Structure formats: C-alpha cells, structure tokens
Amino acid sequence: MTPVPTAPEKKVLGRQGLIARFGRPREGRLVFTNGVFDLLHRGHVEYLHAARALGDALVVGVNSDASVRRLKGESRPVVTLEDRMFVLAGLGCVDGVTSFDEDTPRELIAALLPDVLVKGGDYRAGDVVGGREVRGAGGEVIILPFVEGRSTTGLIRRIEGT
User: What is the pTM of this model?
Assistant: First the structure.
C-alpha cells in the first residue's frame, strides 16, 4: 500500500515552525535552496528533484512578493507568494516551504543551518548567500547544472509574444 503524501498546506511553514521541524539537532541530511519560483516550469522541477537527491529532506525558501518586486521589478511576481508556496509544497520532492521578505535568505539560512545549500548553475559556490554560514557549521554548498532553455523570464516573453 502506498503511503498518503503530506498535504501541501502542512508543508508550508513560518520561520519558527520551519526551525522547529528542520533545525538542529536533527536526524538526516537537510538540503536547502531558495528562489522566486514564479511560473513553475520543468527546469524548476528537475532542479528541485536533483536537490532533494542530495539529502534526506528538502526545504525551499521563497522570496516574498515585495522581495520579488524589489529584485525583478513591479510586474513580478506573476503568481502570488501564497500560490507559489502551495505549488512547491505539492511536489513530492519538497518537504518544507517557507518565505523570506529580505532581498537575500542569509538570515533564514543562518537560523536553519542546512547540511547542504544548493543553487543553480548560474551561481558560483563562493558567491552563494549563506554559504559561509553553512560551511562554517560543517555543511557544503553545491551548484547544480542549469537546465538550458527553461526560465520564467523566457516563458513570460513567449506569452507576451516578444
């Protein structure tokens, strides 16, 4: 008999709930990644599955709507924070989802101290925000290959016909 998957709403946690469930001390290897995840696409899903394969649980930090507007402009995000988190939480490879309002997730990463911090191939390990904190606690930073031809910006341009 196949176990019933955890309902998405049970995976969406505030910062304190996230730390209580996934913080130290913990059993297993915790993987963390973060991003906007606006218009979830195949590249996101491949990336998240690869990240989850690096440990026993995957937590995803999601930029708040205000944070996205500061980083990407007033026309973004296309999808609200609540909906972006719910969709991510609906993926079987994701064990927990939380948001952050800052421009970077440094405070969240420092509080959680995952065993593995993952970013996509458009980053360099030495430049990953929170990497110093994770390495200082004995963890590692891993850069996964970028999935070519898959991006939210590209999707938006196709939809707009530009």
Answer: 0.91
